[in-house]
Amino acid sequence: MTKKTVSAASLAAQAMGWIDPVTRAVVPPIHMASTYLRDEDNGYSSGRIYARADNPTFDQAETTLAALEGGAKALIFSSGMSAATACFLALAPGDHVVVPKVMYWSLRNWLATFATNWGLKVEFVDADRTDAIAAAVKKGVTKLVWLETPANPTWALSDIAAAAEIAHKAGALLGVDSTVATPVLTRPIEHGADIVMHSATKYLNGHSDIIAGALVGARDDDHWKKLRAIRAQLGTILGQTEAWLLMRGMRTLYPRVAWACRSAQSLAEKFAAHPMIEEVLYPGLPSFAGHAVARKQMTNGFGGMLSVRIKGGERAAIATAARVELWKRATSLGGVESLIEHRASIEGPGTPCPPDLLRLSVGVEESADLFEDLDQALKRAHNA
To answer: In DSSP terms, which residues pair with 360 in a beta bridge?
Structure first.
């Protein structure tokens, strides 16, 4: 059996089958060195010069992630934000980019402020509508089309293949934030994406104990070399210990995501019939607006993220979140613990997030326990 015939889940579990050639350990060491020895002829036969450019501890996580996404190369970064912003900093002032109206709030805010002030021409569109993307893209002018699918926190779906065709015809690249889908559910490069981004803090790590980001490139070309140079020049590298923890987390990616998908689907179906919930937003529900696109480009499930809109509006939503006991009121997603958050109050003025919405990140607890806990919180908030 070769690596080409082994499933992605098995490759992740064994970290590509890596064995330490010196100790025969099945877990890699952490390389703490900040610099590397030159050869007698003043060269670097090891290929390494200084740890701000790379570190041996990065190798396993980057190689594994590139394989899982079907990409040529991967880079890990100090955060999801540093990975995402590198894609825009690789452009030039005056370049036009098309991005979603609904997306990770911190990146949206950065694009609307820093990136715009720096000189990028940023156009926000309803990225779940292919016609809106087509109308915004300008041939020879647009340099990057950016998608987030499913999009946080409404889980709107963008058609990656359709967006790739539009972008490429205009001479632009397509970047996809696939944090929520992970390579378990969607491999954007197979649908035409040029760059895949992950907030690796979330599902890739899966244990809520590091901050990290990652990019995967479809090709090891000049643009990819520019992204690698940006990471080195800005110093947005991941610490050696964090890189090791990221790889540790990725080894259980497939079973964690599979469990979360099953639980989220079950919870979405139950909450859809709950008398105190106005609407459930989840790609796995046939009633969801993006369900057809989800079925087209998602496999193995529809993700561990859903949102519920609470009857009674913002006050009822906040009161419900205040009364949970098993769910944890905290920012983030993709960990083993289930999290609940009132996103509109976190994002503040200008948010496109409905005020009655609670965002749910489903972990690996029993779904029946999670349902009962939110059910009792809804009832207590309703009777308060």
So the answer is: 306, 340
